[in-house]
Amino acid sequence: MDPCNSAQDVVLCHLCETPVPPLYCDICQINLCKTCVGEHILDDSKLHIVVAVKHRQSLLVYSKCPEHTSKLCELHCEQCDIPICVQCVFSKKHKAHDAIDILHFSERKKKALQADLEELGKTIYPRYQEIASTILDQKADLKSNTEQLITALNKRRCDWHREIDGVISKLKTDIENTELNHLTVLKKEEDKINNILTEITEKISELKKEQDSNDACLFLKYKSRNEEFRRLPPKLIVHLLSFSFKDIDKKLLNQQFGSLSALSITTEKRVYTLKTPETNTPYLDDDDDELLKL
Ligand SMILES: [Zn+2]
Ligand SMILES: [Zn+2]
Ligand SMILES: [Zn+2]
Ligand SMILES: [Zn+2]
């Protein structure tokens, strides 16, 4: 019986109640007119499958029996799970089997199919959509984490460069100060020696004069200073600075500079819950959580 034929059962658009709408959403199981269909599919909380009502087969098409070609398969064998004809029921193969009316069977199957379709559109598809958007978030997190790490590394590099520059400038100051101190000591010694040299030169010319004069009086007054000049000043030994260092211990260097935590991707169980209120039981599989090592 076609429901459109009886006046009290006129099909209306689910949204605006326009009679005999040409479209139908297989997921929401509602009729829609052309005006309302756009708004309906804009709701992206679920997947909508909109079909033309005229494409929805209301009459069951029977297949021909492959064994008895003049017969149509109007029955279904429960044990063999295949369509059979009335003649098949009495055949040797299906004699002991249970045959049910194919209309009844296909109604059962259609209900199961409709339930699957609804679950796919209303729950499973949106869940996968949600997962896909989580992956987008994870990719964004990964990118921003990389940026943060690189910023931290650059900051660390600046800190280390500053420390190394500090060490170098302190050592440079030490080298320059040491040079200055040593130079002062050497200058003082140089002056002292130059003074003695002057004194010796003066002494030599004084002695030459006295020798040439042959003055007895001067000879009598003569006092030798050679004893004094023989006492040579102590030799100054300047210990020059040297720069020593240990080989760079790369392991220690890495430890001190900082290291990255181990990279890994782990998995966690997702709980699947049906959206329909009467079957609100979580669906779990038995797989253990896995750790995927990179
Ligand atoms: Zn409408
Ligand atoms: Zn829909
Ligand atoms: Zn048959
Ligand atoms: Zn059978």
Give a quick rundown of the structure.
The chain has 294 residues and is mainly alpha-helical. The chain has six helices and ten strands; from the N terminus they run ββαβββαβααααββββ.
Give an overview in words.
The chain has 294 residues and is mainly α. The protein folds into two domains: 1-59; 130-293. It contains six helices and ten strands; from the N terminus they run ββαβββαβααααββββ. The strands form four sheets. A three-stranded antiparallel sheet has the order 2-1-3, covered by helices on one side. Strands 5-4-6 form a three-stranded antiparallel sheet. Strands 7-10 form a two-stranded antiparallel sheet. The chain is rod-shaped and about 170 Å long. Mean pLDDT is 87; it is low at 1-7 and 285-294. One zinc ion binds at residues 65, 67-68, 71, 84-85, 87-88. It comes from Magallana gigas. Keywords: Metal-binding, Zinc, Zinc-finger. Pfam families: zf-B_box.
Q: What's the order of the H and E elements?
A: EEHEEEHEHHHHEEEE
Mean pLDDT: 87
Q: In percent, how helical is the residue content?
A: 40-55%
Named once each, the bound ligands are: zinc ion
Unreliable sequence segments = 1-7, 285-294
First-residue to last-residue Cα separation: 63 Å
Strands side by side in the biggest sheet: 2-1-3
Q: Give the domain tally.
A: 2
